Amino acid sequence: AAVKTGLADDPAASDLKDLDEARKLITALAGLVTAAAPEVSSTHAAPLRDGLRSVQLAFREASAVPDAPGQGPGEKWTGPVS
Known about the structure:
Elements: H1 2-5, H2 19-36, H3 42-62, H4 75-78
Helix pairs in contact: 2-3
């Protein structure tokens, strides 16, 4: 999801940027992290949520058309990200 959002370190990775694919991957990750949270302790869930939030924010920055609050990728599962 990070590569598809444009967060890759490699300058050549800009060719891999695909926000439609990133939206799908972020939504899937949000569902996975949210579903797994009760099974893992908050010690393990917190870094996963932080990483997911970073990718969600990067998506918002990379998107030319902003989503309404709570309507961005994965926000159905995580709540609004700002």
